[in-house]
């Protein structure tokens, strides 16, 4: 399993609108091939991370164009382009 961890920063005052937008994009996000889990976390100041778990790095990389398109929908809300990084998943536990 592979995790893509993407750091982002929303412009001041745009979190409410951006949160509504991400909700409307849920079906597109969850339809990405090989996506197993999607987590979006943020602080009140608009800084946050998206953590997505995929079957493999190759599958995650294959989704790059669609992911860029989805991030593009947030363009007017972002202070700067998001910063993605990738990791092999060593543990994925939950209760």
Task: Provide keyphrases for this structure.
single chain, 95 residues, 4 helices, 32% helix, 32% strand, globular
How does this structure look, described?
The chain is of the alpha+beta class. 32% of the residues lie in helices and 32% in strands. The chain has a four-stranded antiparallel sheet with strand order 2-3-1-4. Strand 2 (35-42) and strand 3 form a beta hairpin.
Please give the structural blueprint.
Blueprint (H helix, E strand, L loop, with lengths): L1 E8 L5 H10 L1 H5 L4 E8 L4 E8 L2 H6 L1 H9 L10 E6 L7
Antiparallel strand pairs: 1-3, 1-4, 2-3
Sheet with most strands: 4 strands, antiparallel
* Class computed from helices, strands and strand pairing: alpha+beta
Distance N to C terminus = 19 Å
Q: Taking Cα atoms only, what radius of gyration do you get, to the nearest Å? A: 13 Å
Oligomer: single chain
Number of strands: 4
Binned strand content: 25-35%
Which percent bin holds the helix content? 25-40%
Identify the strand order in the major beta sheet: 2-3-1-4
**Mean pLDDT across residues:** 96
Low-confidence parts: none
Number of helices: 4
Could you state the order of secondary-structure elements as H and E? EHHEEHHE
* 3D shape: globular
């Amino acid at each position: 399993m592979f995790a893509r961890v993407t750091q982002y920063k929303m412009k001041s005052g745009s979190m409410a609108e951006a949160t509504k937008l991400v909700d409307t994009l849920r079906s597109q996000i969850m339809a990405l091939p090989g996506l197993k889990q999607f987590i979006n976390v943020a602080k009140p100041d608009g800084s946050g991370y998206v953590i997505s778990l995929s079957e493999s790095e190759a599958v995650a990389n294959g989704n790059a164009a669609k992911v860029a398109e989805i991030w593009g929908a947030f363009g007017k809300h972002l202070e700067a382009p998001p910063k993605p990084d990738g990791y092999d998943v060593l543990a994925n536990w939950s209760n």
